[in-house]
Give the backbone structure.
Amino acid sequence: MEDLFGRKYKVLIVDDSDTNRAILAEILREEYDIIEADSGEGAFKVLQQEQGEISLVLLDVMMPGMDGFEVLERMNRLGIMEDVPVIMISAESSPGFITKAYDFGAADYVSRPFESTVVQRRVKNTITLYAKQRRLVDIVANQIYEKEKNSNLMISILSHIVEFRNGESGSHVIHINIITELLLKQLMRKTKKYDLSQTDIRLISTASSLHDIGKIAIPDEILNKPGRFTPKEYEIMKTHSEIGASMLKNLTDYQDEPLMKASYEICRWHHERYDGKGYPDGLKGDEIPISAQIVSIADVYDALTSERCYKKAYSHEKAIEMICGGECGAFNPLILECLLDISGDLQKELQSNTSGIKNKLEIREVTDEILNNNDLSASGQMLQQLELERAKADFFESELSGITFTFQSSPPVLTLSESGAERLGVSRVISDPLESPEIKKLSDETLNRLLEAVSHAASSDPAVNMSGSILADGRMTDCDIRCKTLWMSSEQPNFIGVSGVIFLKDTPAEETHNKNNKEDISAKEINGMDFTLLNQVGINSDSAVERFMGNANLYAKMLRKFLDDSTFAKLTAAVAEGSGQEALEASHTLKGVCGNLSIESLFTLFSDQVAIMREGRWDDAYAMMTEITEKYNKVTEALRTWLDMQ
């Protein structure tokens, strides 16, 4: 599977078991670049080294040190999971574990033992969905960037006209924009009092460019006077804040626009002071909008540090001292703290940033916020697809035989299992299936009854079970259909699709019995290999080879890996030392490995031991080691003998 540039997607496999990692790597290696980590700590080293390159993480739950849930929690805290989906893979299949994984942000959960095709499909579906979502974010970000660039261009032209008349340098508006943004970001980090978002910061920073637009109406002889104002001149100069606000208020068609509201607040009140001694309205404290409070300090700082026709420029240090010392009026103590916090970076930012246009990284932050708030319909559609995949995962966990299918309602698409499509003689993926001749030829009568049954299902009772007949293998065949309607979680659940299985009744009873119940483990030759010896020690070779996509050679390779695995030695040592947690982790790992390799005799013993350990019955769990060791030695001896024969 490749990205837009023809490169394979990178998948990180995190598991403390060499065998488990090897199994997953072999299943996925042909389609993906595989990177492995044997611990949670190792996973973060890889994520740091491969920044932006990892497309998906396959994560074990139980590992020594940092377990899977701790990895998820840290990935969430660092914001990694916004771009890197995680599929949990574990021998732990209890509902509590699965729910916890989803609550921590996992995209999917696969229980061991698993089918190779299920893992391949889950990985492909998840990467595809996240790739589509990333492309959606990039498209929206570029659109916002272009809109932002155009808006800033027009605002800059207008504000520079004012500056030109005022004799100020062309950098004043840019400086105000930068200082405003730095202060707002620090304020957002420092407190939640003002409920600021990335969108708010973008709006206020842009609106700050219009803070002195009212000066366009001030006479030149006052605006550019090199000396002190007379009291009368000062009163005229002070009117620029009201004039600017009035100009904006007269734009009646745009009064509901957030940018207009922020611009009005800044124009009218950026000369107010925290103690109520500012103008034009004498507002006090938080009566002054936070936008105007921030721009007020930004304006004073830039005025102090810039040369004017009536004064020389003060140094950065002196300006900070004057503002914090109250020489320029009273300001919000919290914003003064923010000014001190950013003081070290302020000069560098003003010197290096000569454009008021936000860079694409900042625009991406705004875009993510918009998408997370579901402000775009496309975002909702993506969420629907993810919900669909998650619901499918739960249902298909136990329904792996028969012809599996999934119907997505919007847009209407039917997807069939590869073998199912072949038996039915139709395409695997069919758009608008209700109108498709391919589907109608299978059985109009059965299809109509199924649609009727689905239409009567509800989120509280989603199951649909029925019998019918369908065209399969070139002839009409009786079948049983079991499916589950899927719903989008909300106050009013919305139908989003159906997942189901078609069981054809023409399968010989003996074959069905062997496939579903796995009771017949008699000697069979698969791909030229005689598995009699393995079957005799409780290894279900039929199931295992099927799990490995019918590739007996690959299965044999994984059995060799199992013999080299040191986990059983770790279990024995942990039991001898009475190290309960280490013993639980080792036994749990062996349970998963034996499940995937269909070593059913050992899988049962390790499952029982793990359950007993979870109940805190350590002595009983340790007492099982005699039986486990005897069975383990018998199985490994048979494996070595069998592998030597191949």
The chain has a mean pLDDT of 81.
